[in-house]
Amino acid sequence: RERERERERERERERERERERERERERERERERERERERILVQNKNCVHNYWCF
């Protein structure tokens, strides 16, 4: 019975780490999209024929 609870806690910690990695990947994708938007903004500002670029 004691070992059973132990394994249960172990699985719980495992799921917790899994959720943590998932949130980490989510933040990574968010930063990626941020950089992409930044890059596009900079390109647009650098564009001479502005009105064609929007």
Quick summary:
The protein has 54 residues and is mostly helical. It is built from two helices and no strands.
Number of domains as seen in the coordinates = 1
Cα end-to-end separation: 66 Å
* Backbone shape: rod-shaped
Give the biggest sheet: none
What Rg is obtained from the alpha carbons, in whole angstroms? 23 Å
Oligomeric composition of the shown chains: single chain
Mean pLDDT: 86
User: How much helical structure, as a percent, in the residues?
Assistant: over 70%
Unreliable runs: none
Class by SSE composition: mainly alpha
DSSP strand count: 0
Name the helix and strand elements from N-terminus to C-terminus, one letter apiece.
Answer: HH
User: Given the structure, what is the number of helices?
Assistant: 2
Strand content: under 5%
Please describe what this structure looks like:
Residues 1-36 are annotated as: Disordered. With 54 residues, this protein is mainly α. It has one domain (2-53). It contains two helices and no strands. It has helices spanning 2-46, 50-53. 0% of the residues are buried.
Topology overview:
Layout: H1 2-46, H2 50-53
Provide the descriptors you would attach to this structure in a database record:
54 residues, mainly alpha, 2 helices
